[in-house]
Amino acid sequence: MNDIIKAMLERRSIRKFKSDMVPKEAIDEIIKAGLYAASGRNQQAVITIAVTNKELRDKLSEANRKIGGWAEGFDPFYNAPVVLIVLADKNWPTGIYDGSLVMGNMMLAAYTLGLGSCWIHRAKQEFETDEYKKLLADLGINGDYEGIGHCVVGYPSLGQAFSKACGSRAEPCGSRAEPLRFPKAEPLVGFLRAKPLNSNTLRSETEYG
Ligand SMILES: Cc1cc2nc3c(=O)[nH]c(=O)nc-3n(C[C@H](O)[C@H](O)[C@H](O)COP(=O)(O)O)c2cc1C
To answer: Are 88 and 96 in contact (CB under 8 A)?
Structure first.
């Protein structure tokens, strides 16, 4: 079995994270893997917002908790320090499909870097509110975007997360936590998007502030 198929089989949703921040290089690599996903007519109508600012991360988690109807104190992001919000242009007919592929690529990329991830839903409802529309405007993102999902990322809190996650599958997950080769990074809030192109060359634009 080749490494990519092996990773596809082994990746599991992680629901218990350490609070340690993930290096910026790793976040960028995960986002890049998402940008290279196939997209309808190569329109690349998907953007990804990287949130590592704890205040904003906690605000998003709280909004998500309320939408999900969970009791106060529950963190639907499972303590993950990084939230990659995937949004798709509402006016592009394959936006939801494109965004879902981006999510899949990013979860797989996170796994291959020794990081845990999980798709957290309810981004659609979040970004229907004025508050989160304003967040997009504040980040300089113009246009009409629909929330597809949050890919939460972090270092798995091993003891529970992997064994619990593996428990739902016939095969054991095996060893996965390769040490990361990146230095620690400062928390950031930023976004990265691919531009619509007429060729097969993918270019990206990163802004962190
Ligand atoms: C569209 C979608 C929405 C999901 N939403 C959530 C969520 O809100 N919270 C959560 O803990 N897991 C969520 N998940 C993760 C699934 O529960 C998980 O992928 C599934 O149980 C299979 O487990 P695996 O990812 O380990 O294979 C979501 C997955 C998808 C594809």
So the answer is: yes
Examine the pLDDT at 95 and tell me if it is beyond 50.
Answer: yes
C-alpha 200, offset from chain centre: 24
Higher-scoring residue by pLDDT: 140, 85:
85
Q: Is the pLDDT of residue 138 over 90?
A: no
Ligand 1 neighbourhood includes 16 CB (under 6 angstroms): no
CB-count exposure of residue 36 (10 Å: 0-12, 13-18, 19+): middle
With the most atoms of ligand 1 within 8 angstroms of its CB, the residue from 121, 124, 150 to mutate is 121
Ligand 1 in reach of 164 Cβ (< 6 A): no
List Cβ neighbours of 60 (8 Å cut-off, separation of 6 or more).
51, 77, 83, 85, 126, 150
pLDDT averaged over the chain?
82
Length reported for the chain: 209
Assess if CATH 3.40.109.10 describes domain 3-208.
yes
CA 51 to chain centre: 9
Collapsing DSSP states into helix, strand and coil, what is residue 152?
A: strand
Separation in Å, CA 57 to CA 75, 99, 129: 11, 20, 17
Strands 116-120 and 189-194, sheet pairing: unpaired
> Domain map of the chain by residue range?
3-208
